[in-house]
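[09:14] KT: can someone run the structure on this one? pasting the chain below
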Amino acid sequence: MQKRALGRTGLSIAPVVLGGNVFGWTADEKTSFDILDRFFDAGFNTIDTADIYSSWADGHVGGESETIIGNWLKRGSVRREDAIIVTKVGGDLGENRRGLSARWIAEAVDDSLRRLQTDYIDLYLAHWPDADTSHEESLTAFSRLKEQGKVRAIGCSNLNAEQLQATLDAAKAAGVGRYDVLQPEYNLYTRSTFEGDLAALCQKEEIGVITYFALASGFLTGKYRSAADTEGKARGEDMGPYLNDRGFRILGALDAVAAETQTSPATVAIAWIAAQPAVTAPIASATSLRQLESLIAAGKLELTKAQIEALNAASA
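[09:31] RB: done, structure tokens below
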């Protein structure tokens, strides 16, 4: 499988990244292990998680996903050097464990390393902007982690073009390493927050881009086509914003291209993101081996120009 350079990080990743947000939440440890094994057996190499996954679930405190990934790594079915691990800091874990202060970054990285049962993180991301901490402080703290060998590369998530430019300026002024990767929300339904100035800045600065919500919380799989379809589903309450004329138009286009390619709407939706010039790879999660096959197929699917244009038009 052809790997893609992740910006200037020196890391090379497969065209789809496995989302670890479901590990320990809607996928138990055994299922998570099966998904991870199959994903790597298929030639993919990158997992995305965060220290707060899955703190939102009843009885969870955060770190559940990292813990499962660490237990999987410890089994040794995949060599550590063959797995690219992406995790994040900055989300709210309670008790003043949040944000991007130098103090918390230094503490949080050790917590993540312990849960992941490894001595380095391939890519460490600032999860959310922190208005209470200067970019210089955060970037200096991240650079220190790279010097210590705890982190190979750094990046950020959920920044707009103005905010990302401010971090680049701050890194230059402070004489420290910049963010080399951005993780924005981006999919066939949610396009405007990334396309335009932000995508252009990433291309200009050679910033790697790994996008999240590739399937719009499951809407782009095509399994939610009415309010009735959402009842009793774990993510059903998230479907409201998508159940409209534009959403249905997108599903129609996905259905048509899926039929042409003999794949699924989910596969096509992920492949469309991977085909965008400013994107290195989309992130997508799976709670079963059956769902995972759609991700694997997406990494091997090359859409035609006409198919991409049809999807662009439907989601415009």
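[09:33] KT: thanks! Strands lie at 4-5, 12-13, 17-19, 46-48, 84-89, 121-126, 151-157, 181-183, 208-211, 281-284.
[09:34] RB: yep, looked fine to me
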